[in-house]
Here is the input.
Amino acid sequence: MATRIYILRFPKETSSEPMIYQLVKQYDVEFNILKADILPQREGVMILELKGTKDRVKEGLGYLKSFGVKAERMAAAINRDDEKCFQCGACTGICPVGALYIKRPSMEVIFDPDKCTGCSLCVPICPVRAMEVSPIVEAFTEEEEKIVT
Ligand code: SF4
Ligand code: SF4
Here is the structure.
């Protein structure tokens, strides 16, 4: 299972199709909508976190492509400014993958960048904006490129 973030651009003719629902139903891909800007009869943009096996996610993206949806993979470089962080722990409850957690017995708040999926949920939670995000668009591999773009 892998979790990755994608930017999907929907042509305006597809705004009413239940495509994202089909990702779960037909391809067994779980999704988490991080941002959506979709209005009827307008081109839409959605930032989605997709979780599934590599092959199923690829097939699902291929399915979206058949409707003219363009996909780009996003990686978000998340960093914590340790000088700003005052170890309040507020971010640990929101992180869906345990990349922010409280180490016991020291009660230190740890950020593990290797587990972080870049979902950015911790960014607005932090009262001192210690979690910083710099989104970067990642290139697809040659094989993925053939399927999804
Ligand atoms: S961006 Fe923040 S909330 Fe999301 S996985 Fe990384 S540390 Fe956790
Ligand atoms: S919410 Fe911000 S200040 Fe509090 S532990 Fe997390 S990163 Fe540190």
Remarks:
- Residues 80, 85-91, 109, 125-126, 128, 130-131 surround iron/sulfur cluster (ligand 2) (CB under 6 Å).
- Residues 2-75+135-148 form a domain with the Alpha-Beta Plaits fold (CATH 3.30.70.260).
- The beta strands are 2-10, 30-37, 44-52, 70-80, 100-103, 108-111, 131-138.
